[in-house]
Amino acid sequence: MAKPIMAKATAVWLVDNTTIGFKQIADFVEMHELEIQGIADGDVATGVKGFDPVSNNQLTQEEIDKAQANPMHKLVLKFNAAATGEEKRRGPRYTPLSKRQDRPASILWLVKFHPELSDAQVSKLVGTTKPTIQAIRERTHWNIANIQPIDPVALGLCKQSELDSMVQIAAAKKAAEGGVMSDDERRKLVSTEQSLGMDTEPRMPSAIEGLETFTLSTDVADDEEDEKKDSDFTDAESFFNLPDGDAEEDEDDAK
């Protein structure tokens, strides 16, 4: 449901001029019921002048009468044709002054760990300009040597849900383009909920996959030679008992 303009002032007028319930007013102006009760008690919105929703084309008198007669009736904002298409246009994300110096670190984190995100997506997440993102991608930023990658969620520059949404959009776009993703890229494109649900068993890095059964031949030869030596000297008597051929050669030499 759309929210009326000057919601608090409208609530003040409804409390002062009607017998509509606090819950009905709270639902209409999108405030908490306790705030409406505070307005009635004089603890909230002190000094706020009431804003007449009837004369300002937000409510009809018939709608107010229905709400007063029926405590379960929900007030409906009057349709204003002139306001159609006048929704607030969302501009660049506003970043507080105290956090603006952290934007390069968050950009570097996004570029490093989510290279699939476009410049427009990164700009929307942290509220920066495309030339700055391009400079950090190409490592031509004037302070690139001192920038350390930091998660923008940890810095408070964006929400985790917003980052997950951007990652999912990037994954869908890459899948639509038919690009082949590696295992590492596929793991980067999952959301937080999916990654938390994955198995905790460690995965072998893709760079050394296939080498888990690899052994050096010299090690095998050394092992076989050690086993042979052990088998030759397990019996002391067999060490001193020479073969018949060796005994005959010794006798010939003695003659």
TrEMBL record:
Superkingdom of origin = Bacteria
Q: What is this protein called?
A: Cytoplasmic protein
Q: Where is this region: Disordered?
A: 218-255
Give the Acidic residues compositional bias ranges: 245-255
What InterPro entries does the annotation carry?
TrcR
Task: List, alphabetically, the Pfam families matched.
Answer: TrcR
